[in-house]
Amino acid sequence: MRARDLVAPYPTVDLDSPVADAARLMAERALPGLIVLDERGAPVSILPGTQVLRLAVPRYCQDDPALARVVDEAHADAFVRALGERTVRQAMPERPRELPVTDPDATLLEVAALMARTRSPLVAVLDGDRLLGAVTLSALLERLT
């Protein structure tokens, strides 16, 4: 089996999309992340939901779980609203990792190794310059198990 056998159309955002819109899209569709495209429409990164959380959750709560416990639900919602006008570009990690992109002929083991190495819940599949979609972790695990 090859990547082409598991690839499915997948939502994308661009670098200048509001990160709040990206978060909403992930929530509405229960997505683990989104493919981020540059100005030419080429994948430049995967924006995992966890990276959006890193931007939304105050650093003091990330560093000290005891502080996170004392914030009630009503105030926790304010953190997500605090994303405001920030863009996907601002949510991207400072030091980008290897881009989880492969071609349609990649084996499932190659896709799994790429996911594991890049810690990405999805891998973009490109046929030349054309984005075919993505292989998700859930689709890969379902096939492997």
What does this structure look like?
This is CBS domain-containing protein. It comes from Microbispora bryophytorum. Keywords: CBS domain. Residues 1-67, 92-145 form the CBS domain. The chain has 145 residues and is α/β, with parallel strands linked by helices. It has a single domain, classed as Roll (CBS-domain). Helix content is 45%, strand content 20%. It is built from nine helices and six strands. The chain has a three-stranded mixed β-sheet with strand order 1-2-3. The longest helix is centred in the first third of the chain and has 11 residues, at 19-29. The protein starts with a helix and ends with a helix.
CATH homologous superfamily annotation: CBS-domain
Q: What profile does the largest beta sheet have?
A: 3 strands, mixed
The CATH class is Alpha Beta
Q: What gap, in angstroms, lies between the N and C termini?
A: 13 Å
Which secondary-structure class do the elements indicate? alpha/beta
Which bin fits the share of residues in helices?
A: 40-55%
Query: What global shape is seen?
Result: globular
Proportion of strand residues: 15-25%
Total strand count, please?
A: 6
Low-confidence residue ranges: none
Any idea of the CATH topology? CBS-domain
CATH architect. name: Roll
Strand order of the largest sheet: 1-2-3
Number of helix segments? 9
How many whole angstroms does the radius of gyration measure? 16 Å
H-E order: HEHEEHHHHHEHEEH
What is the number of domains?
Answer: 1
Mean pLDDT score: 86
